[in-house]
Amino acid sequence: MPSSPARILIIDDEKPICVSCRRILQEDGHQVEYANTGKDGIEKALGEPFDLVLLDLKLPDLSGMDVLDRLKAERPEIVVIIITGYATIQTSIEAIKKGAFNYVPKPFTPEELSVAVAKALEHRSIRTENELLRLELSQLRKESLLLGRSRPMDSIRKQILKIAPTHFTVTIVGESGTGKELVAREIHNRSRRTDRPFVAVDISSLSAGLVESELFGHVRGAFTGASRDRPGYFVLANTGTLFLDEIANISLELQGKLLRVLESRRVRPVGSETEVEVDVRLIAATNRDLHELAEKGQFREDLYYRLNVIPLQMPPLRDRTDDIPLLALHFLRQARESSGTKVEGFSTEAMARLVSYRWPGNVRELRNIIERLAATVDQPLVRVEHLPPELAAAAPSVELPPDEPIPATSDDLKEAKRRMRDLVYEKLEKQFVLSALDRGGWNVTRTAALVGMQRPNFHALMRKYGIRTSDAGGEEDV
């Protein structure tokens, strides 16, 4: 029975059996090693990546059951087949209850061994595939930290789903305030490290002279004020994810040390003569062009290529204006829940100003302004006169679609006017849906009744604009 090539370990004290089994399984295309004691078998199985173990229950130093218990405790993914004499078949059955896949009684033919191994490997393959599918499904079901249904944000989500399960380094590039740390957290939450530490560090907030100590740690007496050993952020993030924001602010000297850590997966605390092994996925972020800095000699080229394995470009808020109503209402609801403000929503004119403003500070600026409005406005609706001067002066505009042709005839102009009216109406209709949902607590049934519509009709409007209650943590998904 053919099976995919695998790495197999035989643990048996009879060397002729080991040699014979290795020959049979190598003819089937497998890589095979063997050990003649339980201790050596455990050391090999735990130190190297084996897919399957053939285990004899009678070993000279340890019980085969003890070896099985150790393997299943520390490497549960390894498939174990018991090879045993007829006198110990009952013990083999007990071994299956403890996690062994099957047993093969001695003596066995080459065909019997090949079939048993093929079945075990097929079982392992199916189990692994199912685990990956369950992981993927659980990631899809997780509530996203990223709000917005615009095309740029949909693209970011799709990229995150692809890169999160990998171990590769990611560099997130984007203007300040675009949500780079949220994206890093989203990658971590949807990775296999989701239950491990996520440590976020803003390099620009660290004292220039202490960056090395903060990242790599230090030992007592390493410098003035080092009164005790202190682990660095790499050690604190061990087995998890380390997010380094403003990576371009690291000095050239420290960049070399960071590169060495990434390549060796070892850190040397300041003042220490020994290194500490770490398993960390690094996600870096910057609002500067690292490639341009590298060409100018202001950033190490080798570190740039080491960091830029997977680049991710964050869109500025001005390029995702469709998300502004949803974000504004989300931030307003958060402010209302935390401070008890009276503000419930925005007038159409005020929302038009929010959408038209360029937002140089991006999402961070939007959130700060919404919180300020929530604290200062004492009416149910935010109106234009309540907005800061720079927003109140933002002229509402409807941008032409990128593929909109310039009219060539009078009939073309009339048709373009109709399209523009539809475009304006659709923007207003979308804002109506979002505002209504916010007033109705994002409960579809309650909101439909509030605005005087049948629930199916209101639901249809939501589908039209890709709005889901789960986008804002609503009570009732649709």
Q: Which class of secondary structure composition applies to the elements?
A: alpha/beta
In oligomeric terms, what are we looking at?
A: single chain
Give the number of domains. Answer: 4
Find the count of extended strands (DSSP E, 2+ residues): 16
Please work out how many helical segments DSSP would assign.
19
User: Helix content range of the residues, please?
Assistant: 40-55%
Description of the structure:
- The protein has 478 residues and is of the alpha/beta class.
- The chain folds into four domains: 7-134, Rossmann fold (3-Layer(aba) Sandwich), CATH 3.40.50.2300; 151-315, Rossmann fold (3-Layer(aba) Sandwich), CATH 3.40.50.300; 318-397, Helicase, Ruva Protein, domain 3; 401-478, Arc Repressor Mutant, subunit A (Orthogonal Bundle).
- Helix content is 47%, strand content 13%.
- It has 19 helices and 16 strands.
- The strands form five sheets. It has a five-stranded parallel β-sheet with strand order 2-1-3-4-5, sandwiched between helices.
- Strand 3 (52-56), helix 3 and strand 4 (79-84) form a beta-alpha-beta unit.
- Helix 18 (444-451) packs across helix 19.
- The longest helix is centred in the N-terminal third of the chain and has 32 residues, at 110-141.
- The protein is extended.
- The protein starts with 6 loop residues before the first strand and ends in a 14-residue tail after the last helix.
- The model is unreliable at 473-478 (pLDDT under 50).
